[in-house]
Amino acid sequence: MPRSERRTQLLGAALEVFVAQGYHSAAMDDIAERAGVSKPVLYQHFPGKLELYLALLEQSCDAMINNVREALNSTHDNNERVSRTVQAFYDYVASDSGAYRLVFESDLTNEPAVREQVDRVTNECTEAIAEVIAADTDLPEPAALLLAVSLVGMAQVSSRFWLDSRRRMSKDEAATFVGNLAWRGIAGYPKIDEQH
To answer: What's the CATH fold of domain 1-47?
Structure first.
């Protein structure tokens, strides 16, 4: 198997094990067994459990950040942007892979490299949203950042609450409720061309 394919296979197996057991309970033996390889093969690609976890975490963080950027860039209608951005968080936590647990519920956040990746999701999503807010409203950067981090927090916390509450309403319905709440708040800051 080519090296890149093997790496993808190992990351997939590691994701299943880390999501099911958490970092501390997961063992490299479990990951190798899940991947159907020997431990030496696993160590050829990753020198240790932390490096494997960090590679997987970086991949998971990149996916969440890219989802938010795609949502923001998918339309110029700001109501729709808000809706799609909130939906990106709900889609992410609802994914069968469970990758969101590594990003939003890691049991290793006291490790600086892990904390840095987890914080990167909030920071990069916030910055992307703040750019849109600042460009559209002409608000100063600190205000745009504060509004953006509030939207990120609302989407992240509510999507996790929805998932933990056993999905008592559909994902799309829940995302729509929260998107509408967010839009009603952010719409109070009119676009530059509507301020005259």
So the answer is: Arc Repressor Mutant, subunit A (1.10.10)
